[in-house]
């Protein structure tokens, strides 16, 4: 049995041990990080696969959030009890790529088991994130998302704003928020989930600004963070100023925290979150929801560029029988089908990861019948991705994201200004990059 060498993620992260019950030769265990409405949809797709044939059965198991799921898999691998399939969020890609002996690359899995699989079928903005230097796809794209703007159309109307015209720039955002709060239509203008993902990673991509050297880490482990530029510092300072004016509220460091409840309650009229929140928001909002793209600063040359993906892919883990990998390959082939991908995209808000699923959704008039459902696709394809806007690949980025959130929170609490906080985030983050480089040379 190979040892799971995810040195980077193991640093500073508590581990847990999970035991799996005995399973049949053709049973596949899938550990995932999707609860709520998304988890229910995932379970249904899995059951549809199980019902479609008699040879294999996939058993999904919710293991907590992305970090908890990945941490649990590390402990399970060390105990020889790892699942066949592991869902890993995009910022864990660099760590998984360097997990010696732990991963069965998906291109190799599909080829060796004679299953249909062509990376050219997948959207370039998605597969580029998960390929090696030779263009081989290492994990199976499953749920890819990008942050978008959700807004309360009822509040817009009450404040005298056109609900068909969400703000396009950060300058307009401040104006809209001021009008809504002064009219008493909302207590705050906007809030956001995942501050690092939205207010740094995608902020930088939309403005064609680098997060780090060596093409944001795609070109090697020697990469260094360098996002402490004047534009990031200004934006973080603006968020602090807008908070003092009652236009913005810090929503916490994670996916939902206080941000989404503030949107549901009507306290904040605008929420920045994953396009995959569409299912939950549609199910829980008691007001009419509008959709818009991420804002940009009008005075930054080249903006808006394009946003980058979040979400996760499915990694096949080593240590199982050939018959079981045949089942994994069959499941991945099933998930690749346009009808399956289109259904997943339409029900959840995740991107259609294949061109065929996108085309099928259009043929089914999904975008015509659901205005705003293509916001994420349009935003990601605004322009051809650049070295700064094709994504990121940093080791230890799970912990680095925590650092970024801590430093942003220091700005929101008035302990630091934007420049000091971004400088400190870069310095602390680079220390973790050097730790990762040393552990994976």
How would you describe this protein?
By secondary structure, the chain is α/β, with parallel strands linked by helices. The chain folds into two domains: 26-145 and 310-369, 3-Layer(aba) Sandwich (D-Maltodextrin-Binding Protein, domain 2); 147-308 and 389-439, D-Maltodextrin-Binding Protein, domain 2, CATH 3.40.190.10. It contains 20 helices and eleven strands. Strands 1, 2, 3, 4, 5 and 11 form a six-stranded mixed β-sheet that branches. Strand 1, helix 2 and strand 2 (57-62) form a beta-alpha-beta unit. Helix 15 packs across helix 16. The radius of gyration is 21 Å and the shape is globular. The two termini are 22 Å apart. Belongs to the bacterial solute-binding protein 1 family. The complex is composed of two ATP-binding proteins (UgpC), two transmembrane proteins (UgpA and UgpE) and a solute-binding protein (UgpB). Residues 414-427 have a biased composition (Basic and acidic residues). Keywords: Signal, Transport.
């Amino acid at each position: 049995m190979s040892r799971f060498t995810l040195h980077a993620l193991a640093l500073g992260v508590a581990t847990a041990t999970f035991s799996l019950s005995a399973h049949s030769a053709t049973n596949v265990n899938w550990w995932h990080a999707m609860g709520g409405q998304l988890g229910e949809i995932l379970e249904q797709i899995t059951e549809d696969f199980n019902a479609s044939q008699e040879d294999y059965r996939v058993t999904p198991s919710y293991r907590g959030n992305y970090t908890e799921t990945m941490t649990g898999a590390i402990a399970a691998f060390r105990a020889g009890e790892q699942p066949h399939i592991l869902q890993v969020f995009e910022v864990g890609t660099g760590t998984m790529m360097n997990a010696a002996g732990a991963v069965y690359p998906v291109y190799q899995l599909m080829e060796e088991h004679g299953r249909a699989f062509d990376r050219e079928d997948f959207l370039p903005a998605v597969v580029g994130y998960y390929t090696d230097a030779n263009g081989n796809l290492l994990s199976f794209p499953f749920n890819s998302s990008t942050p978008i703007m959700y807004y309360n159309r009822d509040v817009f109307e009450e404040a005298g704003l056109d609900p068909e015209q969400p703000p396009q720039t950060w300058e307009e955002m401040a104006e809209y928020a001021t009008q809504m709060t002064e009219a008493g239509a909302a207590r705050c203008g906007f809030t956001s989930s995942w501050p690092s993902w939205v207010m740094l990673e995608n902020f930088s991509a939309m403005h064609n600004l680098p997060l780090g050297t060596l093409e944001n880490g795609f070109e090697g482990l020697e990469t260094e963070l360098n996002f402490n530029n004047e534009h990031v510092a200004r934006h973080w300072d603006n968020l602090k100023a807008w908070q003092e004016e009652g236009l913005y509220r810090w929503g916490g460091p994670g996916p939902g925290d206080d941000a989404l409840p503030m949107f549901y309650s009507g306290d904040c009229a605008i929420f920045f979150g994953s396009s995959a929140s569409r299912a939950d928001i549609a199910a829980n909002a008691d007001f009419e929801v509008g959709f818009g793209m991420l804002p940009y600063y009008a005075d930054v040359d080249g903006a808006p560029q394009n946003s980058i993906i979040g979400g996760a892919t499915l990694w096949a883990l080593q240590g199982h029988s050939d018959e079981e990998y045949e089942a994994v390959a069959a499941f991945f082939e099933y998930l690749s089908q346009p009808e399956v991908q289109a259904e997943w995209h339409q029900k959840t808000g995740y991107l259609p990861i294949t061109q065929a699923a996108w085309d099928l959704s259009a043929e089914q008039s999904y975008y015509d019948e659901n205005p705003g459902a293509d916001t994420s696709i349009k935003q990601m394809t605004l322009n051809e991705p650049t070295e700064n806007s094709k994504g990121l690949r940093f080791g230890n980025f799970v912990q680095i994201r925590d650092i970024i959130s801590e430093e942003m929170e220091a700005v929101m609490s008035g302990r630091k200004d934007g420049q000091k906080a971004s400088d400190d985030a870069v310095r602390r983050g680079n220390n973790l990059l050097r730790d990762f480089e040393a552990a994976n040379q």
